[in-house]
Each structure stands twice: as structure tokens, then as C-alpha cells.
Fold this sequence. Notes:
Chain A: GO terms for molecular function: branched-chain amino acid transmembrane transporter activity. Chain A: One of its GO terms (cellular component) is plasma membrane. Chain A: It holds the Pfam family BPD_transp_2. The structure holds five protein chains of five kinds. Helix content of chain A is 69%, strand content 2%. By secondary structure, chain A is an all-alpha fold. In chain A, the strands form two sheets. Chain A has a two-stranded antiparallel ribbon. The longest helix of chain A has 30 residues, at 3-32. Chain B is α/β, with parallel strands linked by helices. Chain B is 37% helix and 24% strand. Chain B has a six-stranded mixed β-sheet with strand order 6-7-8-3-9-10, with helices on both faces. In chain E, strands 4-3-2-1-5 form a five-stranded antiparallel β-sheet. In chain E, strands 6-7 form a two-stranded antiparallel ribbon. In chain E, strand 3 (48-52) and strand 4 (58-62) form a beta hairpin. In chain E, helix 9 (185-234) packs antiparallel against helix 16 (393-415) and helix 10 packs across helix 16 (393-415). Chain E is flat. Chains B and D meet through helix 7 and helix 8 of B and helix 7, helix 8 and helix 11 of D. One adenosine-5'-triphosphate (ATP) sits between chains B (11, 14, 16, 34, 36-42, 83) and D (170-175, 200).
Amino acid sequence: MSQYKQAIDKPYTLTVGVLLAVTMLIPLGNLLTDSDSALHFSAYIVSLIGKYLSFALLALSLDLVWGYAGILVLGQGAFFALGGYAMGMYLMRQIGSRGVYGNPLLPDFMVFLNWQELPWYWLGFEHFPYTLLMVFLAPGFLALVFGWLAFRSRVTGVYLSIITQALTYALLLAFFRNEMGFGGNNGLTDFKELLGFNLQSEAVRALLLLITGLSLLGALLISRWIVNSKLGRVVTAIRDQESRVRFLGYRVELFKLWIFVFSAMLAGLAGALYVPQVGIINPSEFSPLNSLEIVIWVAIGGRGTLYGPIIGAILVNYAKTVLTGLLPEIWLFSLGAVFVLVTLLLPDGVLGLVRNKLWSSTQPLPVSGVPKP
Amino acid sequence: MLKLSALQQYYGASHTLWDLDLQLNTGDCLCLMGRNGVGKTTLLKAIMGLIPVQDGAIIYDGVDLSRAKPETRAELGIGYVPQGREIFPLLSVEENLKTGLRAAGKRGIKTIPDSIFEIFPVLKQMLKRRGGDLSGGQQQQLAIGRALVLNPGLLILDEPTEGIQPNIVSEIGDVIIRLNKARGIDLPRPAPEDIGEIHQAIVRIQRELGVTVLLVEQKLAFARKVADRFCIMDRGRLVADGLMTELDETMIKRYLTV
Amino acid sequence: EDTIKVGVLHSLSGTMAISETTLKDTMLMLIDEQNKKGGLLGKKLEAVVVDPASNWPLFAEKARELLTKDKVAAIFGCWTSVSRKSVLPVVEELNGLLFYPVQYEGEESSKNVFYTGAAPNQQAIPAVDYLMNDLKVQRWVLAGTDYVYPRTTNKILEAYLKSKGVAAKDILINYTPFGHSDWQNIVSDIKKFGSTGKKTAVVSTINGDANIPFYKELGNQGISAENIPVIAFSVGEEELSGMDTKPLVGHLAAWNYFMSVDTTKNAAFIQQWHDFIKNPKRVTNDPMEAHYIGFNMWVKAVEKAGTTDPEAVQKAIIGVEFPNLTGGVSKMLPNHHISKPVLIGEIQGDGQFVTVWQTNKLVDGDAWSDFLPESKPIIADWTPPISCGNFNTKTKKCSGQNFK
Amino acid sequence: MIANTTIQESGASQPLLAGEIDSRHGPILYLEDVNVSFDGFKALNHLSLYIDSGELRCMIGPNGAGKTTLMDVITGKTKPDSGSVYFGQTINLLELDEPAIAATGICRKFQKPSVFDALTVFENLELAMHADKRTWPTLFYRRNAEQNERIHNVLDTIKLTSLSKHPAGILSHGQKQWLEIGMLLMQEPKVMLVDEPIAGMTHQEVERTAELLLSLQGKHSIIVVEHDMEFVRSIAQKVTVLHEGSVLTEGTMDEVQNDPRVIQVYLGE
Amino acid sequence: MAEREQAIDWLATDKRSLNILQALQEGKLFELKSESKLVTVQESTNGYLLKDVVSGIELSEVERSAVGKLNLTNKLRSSLRKAIAQLQLNETDPAIRLTAVQALGKDVDDKALVLLSEHLNGETDTDIQLAIQEILVLKQLDSQDRSQRLAAVNTVKTLNSQAVLNRLETLTDKDAEGHFLEPDNEIRDLADAALSKIKTRIMAYAAVETVFFGLSLGAVLVLSAIGLAITFGVMGIINMAHGELMMLGAYTTYVMQKILPNQPGVALILSIPAAFLVAGLVGVAIERGIIRFLYGRPLETLLATFGVSLFLQQLVRSIFSPLNRSVTSPTWMSGSWQINDFLSLTWNRLYILIFCLLVFTALLQILKRTKLGLEVRAVAQNRKMAKAMGIPTARVDAMTFGLGSGIAGVAGVALSQITNVGPNLGQAYIVDSFMVVVFGGVGNLFGTLVAGFTLGIANKVLEPYAGAVLAKILVLVFIILFIQKRPRGLFPQKGRAAEN
Ligand SMILES: Nc1ncnc2c1ncn2[C@@H]1O[C@H](COP(=O)(O)OP(=O)(O)OP(=O)(O)O)[C@@H](O)[C@H]1O
Ligand SMILES: Nc1ncnc2c1ncn2[C@@H]1O[C@H](COP(=O)(O)OP(=O)(O)OP(=O)(O)O)[C@@H](O)[C@H]1O
Ligand SMILES: NC(N)=O
Ligand SMILES: [Mg+2]
Ligand SMILES: [Mg+2]
């Protein structure tokens, strides 16, 4: 439509293409070839990429609220973790009587803390469809209640950021409590099966990766459709001049709420995809620092671009994987330096660089090309 | 006093000011005119150092300022009243005025001159109110007052009458004329024993020095009243200039109407 | 060149780096020494160090990386229980070996994990016995950080105390979050609880960073070891080296090793450590000894099996004995725990412990506590015919990893 | 001449309308005894004002008289301490918030031009366009040919066609003024509140603005605040003078201009 | 060890052994291995300087390994304490005598009782007399004479003494079968009344204590937030490295104590300016090196300073090791101000509270009274215009950021007195710091102060009912809900300007 949108179309297409290739190639390679084939990837690679893609989805979800709606959520990890816990609870229930104490109903951690019955909120999680619903509803509902309160009272800017941080911090402390019935610090682990399939089997891993990749692609397509819709523009307008939008007759709080809840649900989905692939969900996912890191991924990739955060999340996490193995003693120096340098040298994130070099568009860009008010 | 030569300015890839030359003599009151978006504000910002220029020179009192910091320009006595007022919204009126005292202090001004309150009495009434709470017109007065704290040698005004009530507009006109023709702030009435040649000399020097004014203004009547020279811009270039009296209908038709 | 790789999986950054970095160095030292002795099976050992950064999922990822990419023969690592829980499915899936050197809550026995730290019966129970019998303690504060290890330990202790006739009103249980730093109320409560005239003691399962402010507050509120002794299970020489020990003098800790124990083996170990780390002031501690024992047992088992193949090592290591640093000979038991002496020490002004009590023989680590009703019937035995980490002696069924 | 092509029938098609505006008894906007104070300072002082349906009302008064505050009250930005504000006979504006008031058909141009910098000029207009402004319909909204044309007409009117694909952030001050006027046109309001529309415009543009406003009267009720007397004279029928938060006088331009009080506090000379 | 206990008892009978016992208590008594002889030691450059235990005459200098320290256990320590107290009962200094009496009073056996009552006759100091009488009157409760007991109950009810409370409780308790332990009704009723009197007083003291706990927690919060109130609140920089700047302050204290190993108090005081300089200079470096390129892009400061925080953490890990460092508290910061048995205020917290108020006042004065204060705010609100008015923004920025950072460093000095000095110190406080600043209202220093104390007290009032974790959760929820009511914190910026 407008010229600058064309400018972002190219990297967007590229991102979609690469993602599609990766998500199809690796799982299909693993499903269709023998283990000694060149197209066969180790479980390590598969689960690593699966994890990156879940994080990418998480980053994408944050970009919607932060990049487009200007709501700097410092508690996005809370929604991710809730989705993850929902999935974790399902996986726990799937263990059934194969737990160490052989209790058919209660997860192990409840048995040795003398719980007599399953708490009510664990009911239903033995059913996958219910779980799937909760993966979206649990974070969605929290976002709805929280957002409704906050947006209605016109809490904005750092105030909103900090109370989202307070939210995730409170949840962190709550989930740490063993009385909450979510396994305390240890969280939920020792998963065995998903829908009756062995989680440790190669095929299931490959399929999980495929599903994660497709979810990410789907989310990217939908998100792009949303930000290019009029709603997307209203939301962008809210980011820049919230009060002005009200006078045009839009209910700012509802628009914010809409995008906030949608983003929370995406984050929940990311969490649900993440958990079976890494094999653990624990309250530290609620830690404010984790949420802060998500912000970093988005910023590194380039906010307000949708594909930037995806690349940011993958790059940062890949860097982590490599550096923690390669320079275990001093990798924080390098990561810290990378963060500083990217900010100083690449104001539009890594993607800004790529975009400027490859597509040297003279058009100002939607977010940072214009001086902020 | 101020000499611009071959000034070039770009916003990213778009060329906003083209090879601009302009000369302002001490005591001049020059009105810069032109349609919307031709680059008037941009030029003023460049003179103030708020945006970088790519090429060309800005000579003020013989010093090349084209790479100098805005702070330095303020210290040298360039006062700036921006379009859109740019009041410090959370500072009180008094504090807004005080922001200029550091630069003014370099030239011996330690407190806010009372004359500013004579010119804009409303500021005195609202001394403790936050700048951002003032009405649009009050803010404009504050913006001019703030620039005057610097006791400027060159005063740059970007559409100073915007949103100002008519009687104040004409007062602002008078103020500009007064500043321009005489060195602004009236001297205190001399004690009888001081009356003499020295005092006379000081007054004369001040009158001759007068504040040089560079004004952007759309309102013809106002421009005609205060300025003695005009200068018309079109698409980043200077296209005409002359004495205010020479500004005729054909020129207006050609450059100022759409 | 052909080497045998050994994975070292300890956090070098993040909250746990405080404790775990030392263990990484310990492993490097042990491997270094083994290489000086000629390596293993004629090959050199090579340490592969990674940093799981105190991030639990990252522990799993790194474990997988070590086993798949680096093909390590064994992993020495983890500190917190949750990091172990995170790594567990990975080592089980890939049939790796993990040596876990920290005291923990028990209730676990995996075919692929060797628990060289203390089980609750090798630390908590003897400590309480000491307080009850020697110090005549009648009132008990069980203070811990809110996570599995303290929770489980305290459950075991509560059951144990009650079985010894302690009334419920004489037990005060308190949990605080990780890194808790404001102890004013809790210490004040402890003071009140302990001022009734009956001898009171605090059994502390407070973890890591929370200890410094806790002891500071104890000192400042005037609780000395003479009135209300505190016995800790997570405060060792290394933790003390970061504290102002003046107000701590006389408080207690229960471990299986103290740096101050005067044996030639220990002196040599300390000397070796100081040489390796190039700092004569560095202390040694219990988990270091656990790695020392664990590593050497692994070496012996590999030599015995003639291969590093995990399956063979798992078989070979059971029954392997290795002298520990405090005088006894520890043995790898069929339940993958080891036998250890239990020592109780009093903190001295120089940050060392004086042993005031010790078991007269080694105590076998018990994976499944006899003081928890659900665990009582369960045993772990990785030798045939049971070959299972949680075998229910009542139902004769095996659950968990080798569930059939 | 301009507006005929751009402004369609308004009123009947308001989907979010809280009810028909009842202006049978004359005025469409009623403000009675409105008081607003800030930290003790009375910005509006027992102000009463009536605007008739289809009327073009000019509002003048010294800086700080309370003109902008008045608009803030009408549009719901500022809640008065006391008084009543009605739209037609039935809609109590004090019970509504900003979007609800906007939805009833009261729209506003701000004194300080406020457009959405990150959006293009085109998108700015599209956002303002009269439409169903709830979330889901906005999400699924598709522009039709007629709407497209309307936007283009307005672009022509405000002379920004060539810049339509540029982000509004790069516009000059005067261009932003025009864009805001364009956004106002797109909203097809019943009542337009126009705060200092011509600041920063050239003489000729001022004339065009005057023409535009004149062509809109009758269909819309308009309140214009301006300090440029020449401009006011060129459009004014009825002029209200505000002073220190209340109405000083009201009347035709001539009456007002010759009122000594107005001369003293406002016009000067 | 049992032998040592006997030895102590034996020594306690001889006045000359006081030196030996005190040396033993202070851990200065060593055995010279070669001669099996007891000596006291003093650290010297090459090892230890030996002195004769009794006379204190210097003997010789030996290597560390030549001597072995005589270790103590709790049992020995308490025998020692008693023994020393017995010997000190006749010291000339009344303060020492008083401590001796109190030490003996801790658990009185018959021997001590006799000793004390004998001593009472000869004692001239009234405080000491009172202290002894208190011990004796308590013993009277056990007397055979009923009237003496009644009188004793009446006397003790005015005392704020834990021992009295415990004793009274045993007078009113029932045994396992539900019979009263004390058969005498009158005494029991009297004891009951006395008990309720004392308990009322205890409640009042507990309330005072809770408020103090809250204020001292608040002081820590305020201290850690107040630097941020400048860098974040006034300058608008989301400074994620704030916690690490505090950490630097804490490490400065550690280094100062290393430099002055024998004067922890002096070192602590000197640490305050030193930490201000260290953290302040690092702050200036961060501002000049990174942040100045990011003005107008506030969110990017978050990213960059997060990088800086990782860097600084790893830096101290590399320099000081990942372990916690031990920072000692000088004696005047240790222990507590014992008002009575039921109320005591710990010195370190008290000092930190005072320190916090001092820092706050100083800062307020700087921002109010100096030109810097005005210029900082002008720059923060409109950088370009500030430049145009001639404000040297670069210098103002650097100085302000340096000031905020320096104060973070000073806060670190205070923290070193109550918590870990380690690489994670910063992370433990960063979330709370932001919370306090935002809760108080960004840009309002006074808000930060009130917010810190409010949250501190709220936490401490809730803690006894809800426990530490739940209390914290409740406080967080309270913050979230409070912000709904006041979307701009406790003390919001008001007016038109703040709305957009
Ligand atoms: N930050 C910017 N980036 C890109 N282009 C800009 C920027 N600011 C202004 N422009 C463009 O530069 C041109 C000159 O703008 P300028 O503000 O100087 O105009 P002006 O003559 O002052 O107009 P007006 O009378 O409306 O104030 C305009 O066409 C405007 O669109
Ligand atoms: N939030 C506020 N706090 C304090 N005073 C305020 C606030 N808002 C407005 N005022 C004061 O109320 C008065 C009326 O302001 P208003 O903006 O309505 O004037 P106006 O008539 O629009 O003036 P102008 O023609 O200059 O735009 C002014 O004196 C202004 O300073
Ligand atoms: N196992 C422990 N101490 O976490
Ligand atoms: Mg302009
Ligand atoms: Mg106004």
C-alpha cells in the first residue's frame, strides 16, 4: 500500500521463507530419513530450535503490545509461564500412576507433601482440549482482568510497565509457595507423554518442532494482518497520542485491552509449546528479569516490525547457547557488550541494519524514522 | 552581524535548505516569509544549532558558528523563540525564565530583569504556575520573555503572534520595535547627579546597538508593522528579498499564495 | 588426540554462581590431577565446562549439549534440586551419568544419577539427635527457604521430633522466599519463642544468600549460640568466608566434611586446592569433598569396567569404595547414594568449624525417608533382581524410571 | 464549494449514536453555570452558553480567558466542578467520556496541532473517518471505493495529496494544521469545535479556511476560536467574547468590536 | 573438653586467672606446641608474638604453625562467662560489675544466688543494687513464706522482664491433668492480674517494634531507590545498572575494610565518600560513554544499561570472585539498644534509618538550592530548548547521572551492613527500587521517601499475619490496585502538561 510498507515486505517475506524452510525441513528430514542421513538432525538441535522458535513467538507477542501499541509490558513472561503451566499440568496428569509414588491421581510433589486430594484447579487438565483452551484462557483472562483495571484507570507509561512487573513478581512469589499446589520451586517436571506419545521419541520431538514453527508462522501472519488492519493503525495512533485517539471516538482502553489480551494469549501459546520441548516449567519463568530479557530480544531485533523480534529472540538465544558453551567464564561480558553496541550502533535493531543495507529504503520507517513526540 | 553562506541542510535524504545565503546587519529587523513547509523553521533551527547543517557557514559577529553547540550560541546572545513555544511544561513560569540565567550570567545578568514583567505583566501574576498549564497565548508570552532573559543581541522569533490576542499582538509588535530600535530594556531613570555626557553616551550606544531581529511571520499586517526588510523562501531557497516597503501584491501572489 | 571428556555443569553466572563456581574449579583440579597420574584407561581426561547460568531449562539444554555434542563420559554438576530435576530426564533419555554433589531432600533415585551429597538421614536426623541428646533442646524452630529441600527435610524432622515426644506447640516452622533479606520479624519471633525458659534451637535449612542477613540479624538482636543455637545444613566454610563471623561464633552446622578435620588426606587435599587455585586463603567445603569422592569413584569404576560406557560404569560403580577426607571409607551403595560420616561443628571466629560431635561410623544414604508415610515402603536398589530406583516393598512394584 | 463534495449527509447514519439529537427547541449545545477551577484558579466562572443548530459561532477573548478549557469541558477532557452541559435536549455530556462524546458527533480540532506522526497522512484521515469504531468492526474494516474517494477529496481540499503517503511526523506546522482540519472533515460531526485553525497559515490559506468554514455552516454547528480579527470578521455572524472564565458579551461582529470593554481587555488600540 | 570445663571452674576461684579466662574467651589463648605451654598471642608480620598469659610479658615471635589455638564450644563458653562474671563482680568499674551481675542473672543457680546476695550488701551502685534485687525478688517467688511470695508478685508486675513473665506463667499454668501447678488461689489470681498487665505492655512494645521494623525496611528501600529517583525519575533513564552501582558501593566498603583491617568503623565511614566517588565516576563514564547517545530514545537506555549491568556483574565476579565478600560491622553498628526485655532496636537499622534521612535531606537540598536542580529538570523536559537557553546539557547530564549513581553507591555502603556483598546484590534490589520510585510518583523525590516507608511498614504490619511471602505478594497486589486509583503514583505530577 504505502511505500514504506513495501520496504518492510522484503525482509518479512524472507523471514517467513526461512522460518517455513526450517520448520518443514528439519522435522520432515527427521521423520523421513534414517538417523545417519545428512538431513537427520540430532535431538539436541531439534529441541534447541524448538526452544528458539517458542521464544520467537513470545517476542512476537511482546512486539504487538510494545512495538505497535506502545505498552511496554515488563511482565510478558507471566503469560508465557501461565501457558506453560497449563501445558505442564496436562503433562503431569498424563504421568498417571507412573510417578515415583505410583499415585494415579496426585503428582509426586503433592504426594510427598501429603496432599490428600487434587486441588480443584487441577481438575480438567487430564483432557487435552480443555488444556488447550486453558493455554489461551489462563493468560488471556489474567490479561483481561489486569488490563481492564489498568487501561480503564488510564494507567500508562512507566506506571503500567512497573505494575506489569509487579504482577509477574507477585506471581513468581506465589508460584514459589508450595501451598499453591504448583510444585513450588521445582515446578513441574518428569513429563512422559503428550497425547499418548512418548515425549522423548524423535518423531514427537520433530512434530513438536513442526507445530511450533507453524504456530509461529501462523502468529506472524495473523499479527501482520492485525497491524495492517485499521485496528493496527488505531493502536499505533494510541501509542503516539493516546488522548487524541479518544476524541476521534475510539475507546482507547478497549483497543489496548484487545491487543493486550491477544498478545497474552500468543505468549501463553508460546509457553505451552516451550514446556514439552524443554521438559520443565518452574516459577523462575515468572521472574522479572526473564520478562526484561524478552524486551531485550525485541529491542535487539527491532521493535515494531514483527519479524525483527523473531530474529532478535533467535539471535540472542543462539548467542547464549554458543557463548555459555564457548566462553563459559566470561560470556556475560560479551553479551553485555553486544547489548550496548547494538543500542549505540543499530538504533533500529539488527533488522534496521539489514534493512538499511539491503533495501536502502529512503522512506522513513514507521517507528523510529520519525522523531518521537 | 549574521551571515549565512551556502547553507545546505537535509532531513535524511530529503534536501530541505538549498544553498542559502542571507545577511543580517546589526539593528536589522528581517522578516522571513514563505508558504507552509518551505523551510523557514528549519532555517531558524539551523541558525540556533538545533539541527546540523551539512554544508555552508553561519557567521555571527565574525565567528563561524556552523559547528558550535546551541549553548554557545545562547551564551553569545542569540535568543530563540521557537514555533510551538516549547515551554518547559513542569517548571513554573519563574523557573522557565531562570533557565536562561546561566548563559545570561556570562554577560552580567544575575536575576530576571524586571523589564520582562513590564512587557508581559501576566507572567508576574502567574509566576508560580507550571508553564504547561498556561493558556496558549500565555505560553507564547512566556517564550518571548524567556528569550529576553538572555538580553540577546540577535533575537529569533518563529511566528510569535500565533495564538495571541490582538492587543498583545500589537504590544509584541511594539516590543519588537522597541527592542530593535533601542536596546530593549530601558535604563533606570538616572539620578540627577549622573545626568551628563557619560550617561548620554551609554544611551546612545545602546540605541545604536539595538537588538537585531530575525522574524518568521505569516501575518502581513504584522510583518509590515515591525520589519524593515523581508526575505521570501520557496522550497528551501531564498527567492526574493528587499525592503518591507517594496513587498508588493505581485510578489505576494507569486510566493505567498497557493 | 583421543581424550575422555568429562562434563562440568555448574552455574558460573546468575544467582547460583556464588556456590557453584567453586565446584567447577574443584572438578578442573581433580581432572588435572588425574591427568598428572596418567589419565584414565591410557587416555587424557578433558573437562568440558559450560555455564547453565542458574537457569533451569538451560541446565537441561546444556546437559543435552554435553551428552550429544561433546559426548562426555560423565557429567559432574548441579546444585539446586530443581536444576537436577531439570537435567534428570535428559540424562535418563540419553543414558548419561550425573554426579550430584550437594545435600538434598532425597525421594529420588535414578539409574543415571549418583548422589554424593547427603540424604536427609545423613545430615538432618543426626543433627537433631545431637541437639536433643547433647544440648537437651526442647523447643524447635524449623526455619527454611520455601522450596523442596527444606520442605521435605522439615517434614521428615517434624515427624521425627513428634515420634520422640515433642509437642506440636514446641515446634515452630517458618518458610521464607529465596534471597530473603529482611529478617527482623522472624528473628524477633524466634527470640520470643525461645525465651520461655525451655532450651530452644533453630534448625536452619535457609539457603544461600538469605543466610548472611539472617545471621546478622540474629547477632544484632542478641541471639547468641549460648541461648538459642542455630544448626544449619547449608552453611559451610565457603558461605562463612563471605560473612562477618564474629556474631556467629558457636552456632552449628551439620555436614559430612569440615575443612578443619585433621587428617593427612584432608591436609593434602587442602594443599592441592590452594596450589591449584593459587590462593592460600580459599576454603574447602562439603560439596567439594562430595565431588572428590564422586569423581574418584567414577575413575575407579571406569578402570574396573575398562570402559567409560555408562551402562558398564553404572554396574561397576556400585560397591566401589573410596576413602573420604575425614577418615572413613565411603562406598557407593546400590541405591546410588554413598555412605558418609556425619559431623557437627561449631563455628569459630576464623570461619572454620570445630567438630563437637560425630557419628562413630559411616551412615548409609537413604534415598527414601523412613519418616514419610508414603516413602517408607519404597526402596532403591539398582542391582538385580530389583534394578529399580523406587521399588515398593509392599506392592512389590517398581515405579518411576523403570516403570513397567 | 469544497465541502459539498466532501461532506456527505450526516446525522442519520451514526451507528453509535446514543439517541437522536433533539434540537427542536433551538440550541444544540447548552452550557449552564459551568465552573472549572485549577488549584483554586477559576478558569471557567459561572459560564453559560447556547449554540444553535447549524450555527457558526466565533469565540474570542484574551489569552487565558478559558476558551480552550471550554472546549475541554464540552469534549469531556475536563470535568467541571459544577454546572450542566447538554447536547440537544437529552444527552447529558457530563455523563459521557471522550469517545462517547465524539460518537455523539462532537469533534474537535486542537489548538496545538496533534496528528499521528507515525501514520501516513492518508491513514490519519482514514482513522478519523466516520465509521463503526468498536474494536472488532475496526479489525475487520475494509475501505470501500466510496470511502476511498472521500479521503481523496479531503486530501485535495487540504492540499496534501502529494504527501498522502508520508508519515505525518514530517509535516510542517502549517501542514499539520491542515491535516487536522481534514481529520475534522472526515469525522462528519454535528458539532465542530475548532481551536485556532489558522495559526501558522499564510494569508491566502486563511481565506481558504474561511471559505471552508462558511460552507460548512448550516449542516454543522461550529465553534471557532481565533485571535485573528480579520479572519473572524470574514466569517462571523455571532461572536461571543469570553473574559476571565465567563461571557463578557455576545453579539454581531460590529457590536462586539465597538464594545469598549472588549476593546479594553482584548482588542486594544 | 570436659577437662577444660573443670579447669575453668577451678580457675574461677582465683582472682589471678581472670586474664587467662578472658584470653580464652576472646580466642587469644594458644598452646605453644613445642613446650606444651599456654600463651597469649598477638598477630605480627611473621606469625605470632607470644606473651606470657599471666604477666603479659612478651616472650618470642613464632610461626603460625608453632602454636595451636585453644578452641571453645558453647558449653565451655557459658562456663567461662559465668566464671569471668564471678571474678568481675569485684571490679572497680561499676559498668563491668553490672554486666557481671547481668551475666550471672541469666540462669541463676544456688551458688550464684549466694554470691549475689552477699555482694548486694557491699554494693554501693544503685543500678547494680536494683539489678540484683530483681534477680532476688524473682527467687522470692519460690520462697516458703506466703507473704513474701505475695509481696514478690506485687513487686514484679512493674518489671519488664522476660524472666518474670516466664515465672508468672508457670504460676498460672495447669499440668497435664488440668490441675493448676500453683495450689494457692490468691497467688494465682494475683499472678494472673500481673501477667495481663505485663502482656498489655508487651503489646504496646510489639507495636512500636513493628513500626520500627517497617521504618527500617523502608529506609533500605528508600536508600536503594533514591538514586534511581534521580536517574530514572528526573532524567528519565531506565537505568537497569542501578543495582550494580549499589553493588560497587558495597564492594568499595569491602575494599576500604581491607585497606584498614583494624578499624572497621573508620573504614565504614570513609567508605561513604569513597563509594560516592567510585559509583559516581562509573556513572559518569556510563553516561558519557553510552547514555548520551540515547537521549530522546528512553527505551533504548533500558537495553544498553541492561548490558552494562551484565558487564559490571561479571566484572566483580572476575575481580573479587563469585563468592560473597565479608564486610564486618564495627562494634557500634552491632547489637541493639536494649530498652527492656521486650523492646530493643538494633543499632545497624537505627543508623541506617538516620543515614537514609540524612542522604535524602542532602539530596533534596542539592536539587532545590543549586542551579543544577533546575537545569536537570529543564534538560529532562525539553533537551533542545534547554540547549537553546544556554544550558550546557552535556555537563548537566553527566553531573546528574553521576549524582544519582553516587547515591546508589552510598546506598551500597548501607546495604553492606545488612546483607550479602556479592555479585548478585544489585539484582536483588533493582525491582524494588523501580517499584518504590513509581509508587511514589516519578519525578517526585518526596514521593520516593513516603513510598519507601509506606511499603516498608505495610510489609511489616502484614508479615506477622500473612508470613513473609504472602505479605510481599499482598504488598505487590496493593501497589497494582493503588496505581489504578492513582495512575501516577502517590504524588503525581499534576496539570495539563502531565496529561500527555
Ligand atoms: N524531521 C523532519 N524529517 C523530514 N522532513 C521534515 C522534518 N521536519 C520538517 N520536514 C519537512 O521539511 C520541510 C520544511 O519544514 P519547516 O518546518 O521548516 O517549514 P516551515 O517553512 O517552517 O512551514 P510552516 O510555515 O508551516 O511552519 C517541510 O516540507 C517538512 O515536511
Ligand atoms: N491544568 C491547569 N492547571 C492550572 N491552570 C490551568 C490549567 N489549565 C488551564 N489553566 C489556566 O486556565 C486559564 C484558561 O486557559 P485556556 O487554555 O482555556 O485559555 P484560552 O482562552 O484557550 O487562552 P488562549 O487563547 O491563550 O489559548 C489559563 O489562565 C490557564 O493558565
Ligand atoms: N539440594 C539443595 N540443597 O537444593
Ligand atoms: Mg515553521
Ligand atoms: Mg486556547
